[in-house]
Design goal:
By secondary structure, the chain is an alpha+beta fold.
Length: 249
């Protein structure tokens, strides 16, 4: 395999292009179980019929685990928004429509979102009373089984040359409540400092999905607490401040 062309560098991984293949190479100390789980998630999502890069191979390259997938030629929605700011609202609508298409699917073998969140909240740097409150609230939220991407952001949607949206990076995929996934996307915009688009996104998601905005907002502290376990110190501090809000207004 030719690893000369780097197309993305992420924490703990580097993504290369080799012809019509995309090769995601993980750092040598990256968990083998997490690599295999990501490949399995991606393979399971393929079976839903969604437009995603197909997994071709899982292998090791110079002692490092790698996932080889189809290379999708195109640009991410994040790139397109930067290049064509006049079309940003149009791209944001396409972004939400793509997320709703993902959430229209079911995939019974995926991990359950609630189980994952309960584990993460238990690990969060919060006092016992706050953790107990968040666990209780999570348990009281409606149980759904929709496909949730877990990190749905404009940089994870590629628009191919024929205009088809492809969704990439399925490492955090679960089945659960769509509004929890929307709360996660909202916080992604906030973490980038993009407050205006965060509000536009949330309003559009609620409008197109017929969801009460207050319902998504109820998920915010729960999602923030579960996300605070990973990320850098600045992100953790920000997310924990959200998790400490008893009722999001």
């Amino acid at each position: 395999m030719n690893l000369d062309r780097v197309i993305a560098v992420r924490t703990n991984k580097t993504v290369y292009r080799d012809g019509d293949k995309c090769i995601k190479v993980f750092d040598s100390d990256y968990s083998k179980a997490d690599v295999l789980n990501e490949a399995l998630n991606q393979a399971r999502i393929e079976e839903t019929g969604l437009n995603i890069p197909k997994v071709l191979e899982v292998c090791t390259i110079e002692g490092k685990w790698a996932i080889v997938s189809e290379y999708i030629k195109g640009k991410t929605l994040s790139q397109l928004m930067q290049e064509h700011p006049e079309k940003k609202d149009e791209y944001l609508r396409l972004f939400v429509e793509t997320q709703l298409l993902v959430q229209s699917k079911t995939c019974p073998l995926l991990s359950r979102l609630k189980d994952k969140m309960n584990r993460k909240i238990s690990q969060a740097d919060l006092d016992a009373t706050t953790r107990y409150d968040l666990h209780t609230r999570l348990e009281g939220m409606p149980k759904h089984n929709k496909v949730c991407h877990g990190d749905f952001r404009p940089s994870n949607v590629i628009i191919s040359e024929d205009g088809t949206p492809y969704v990439i990076d399925w490492s955090h995929a679960t089945q659960g409540n769509a509004s929890a996934d929307a709360a996660r996307t909202y916080l992604c915009f906030w973490l980038k400092g993009d407050l205006e688009d965060a509000e536009k996104y949330l309003n559009l998601f609620c409008e197109l999905s017929g969801t009460d905005k207050r319902y998504v907002q109820k998920w915010m502290p729960i999602v923030a607490a579960s996300q605070s376990v990973k990320g850098n110190a600045h992100e953790r501090e920000f997310l924990l401040s959200w998790a400490n809000v008893v009722d999001y207004e």
